[in-house]
Amino acid sequence: MEVGGIQALRAWRKRQSGTVSLVPTMGALHSGHRALMDRAAASGDAVVTSIFVNPLQFGTDEDFFKYPRPFQADLDVCEAAGVDFVFAPALGEMYPAAPEVTVSSGRMGTVYEGAVRPGHFDGVLTVVAKLFTLASPDSAVFGLKDIQQFCLVKRLIDDLNFDIDLIGLPVVRDEDGLAMSSRNEYLAPADRAAALAIPQALDAAAQAASDGSPAGVEAAAQAVLHVAAERGDLDLGYLGLVDATTFQPCAQDFEGQALLLISATVGGTHLIDNVSLEFHRSA
Ligand code: PAF
User: Fold this and answer.
1) Binding positions for beta-alanine (predicted)?
2) Atom from ligand 1 closest to the CA of residue 24
3) Is 72 in the same domain as 146?
4) How does pLDDT run across 184-205, given as a tens digit for each residue?
5) What is the DSSP code (8-state) at residue 269?
6) Which residue has the higher pLDDT, 90 or 181?
7) Which tens digit of pLDDT belongs to each residue from 104-123?
8) Which of 74, 145, 147, 149 to mutate to test the pocket of ligand 1 (most atoms within 8 A of CB)?
9) 235 strand-pairing partners
10) By C-alpha distance, which of 55, 42, 66, 142 is closest to 102?
11) Ligand 1 center to residue 102 CA distance, Å?
12) Are 163 and 31 in the same domain?
């Protein structure tokens, strides 16, 4: 496994004769990241994992300097996953000066998570575009838990004509249904029990969607979340049924792939989850 910055990555990339897959990360690697690397390696591609804490995607109230950076432990995870190149550039190498030209995530980057974290998705897409340019991968693997990030990266690829196959890895859930997240460790047992209203709401929505129409889907999820909210266990952030390509709310006659998005705060911890639902009039 090689480890290096921009020059080393470019030199390594030139030597590759086969296909290359990129797994972008900010380090502090856990089993979710490992699953992304395993997926990339399973395709037989040479795998590049980037480890770079990107200041552009942090808000003024989010502490970029306190973000965990367990570099040696991260390298061990990459080594065990069979990663071929770890791209770990210095901050000054990625941003020698504050960038003048950046990527705009548009309206789609200002709603839902984008409304909670203004400017976040512009920062994400700017660094992802730089990683795509530097690593020139044939494919890139992202988790579907951060679904708005995933859908925006899809728009980045489509709208700016990157020739990259985007692979989404399904949300990994614990046995009780809660989506795995490094933030789950902040949940006290009572908070965790309350947080289960989130996957339960998604299940209720999926059942309501089984007649093939969006009518009643949000209401079904809302009903489950209301019970938890009324008990005072959970503070609902947003709930929305949106078109996956635009993040515009779905009309009653919507057809195609929709996403039900949920965010909630439980015991001070911000949790997000989603489910993908297909609607077809003939169904
Ligand atoms: O999902 C993340 O870890 C980050 O947003 C990403 C895609 C590595 C960009 O910094």
Assistant:
1) 57
2) 8
3) yes
4) 888 899 999 999 999 999 999 9
5) E
6) 90
7) 999 999 999 999 999 999 99
8) 149
9) 265
10) 55
11) 16
12) yes
Residues 30, 97 contacting (CB under 8 angstroms): no
- Among 135, 167, 199, the domain boundary falls at 167
Residues 145 and 67 in one domain: yes
CATH of the domain at 52: 3.40.50.620
Sequence ranges of the binding site: 26-33, 57, 143-146, 149, 172, 180-183
pTM of the model: 0.93
Taking each helix axis as running N to C, give the angle between helix 120-135 and helix 6-15, from 0 to 180 degrees, rounded to the nearest 10.
50
Nearest one of 253, 252, 218, 220 to 238, comparing CA atoms: 218
- Tens digits of per-residue pLDDT, 133-167? 999 999 999 999 999 999 999 999 999 999 999 99
Partners of 168 in the β-ladder: 142
Is residue 28 within 6 Å of ligand 1 at its C-beta?
Answer: no
Whether 114 contacts 108, CB under 8 Å: yes
Residues 4 and 133 in one domain: yes
Asked about 270 being catalytic, the answer comes back as no
* Pocket of ligand 1 contains residue 140 by CB under 6 Å: no
Question: Would you say the CB of residue 24 lies under 6 angstroms from ligand 1?
Answer: yes
Indicate if the pLDDT at residue 283 is higher than 60. Answer: no
181 CB within 6 A, ligand 1? no
Residue of 22, 23, 26 best suited for mutating to test ligand 1, as the one with most atoms within 8 Å of CB: 26
Instruction: Write the CATH number for 268.
Output: 3.30.1300.10
* Whether the CB of 105 sits within 6 Å of ligand 1: no
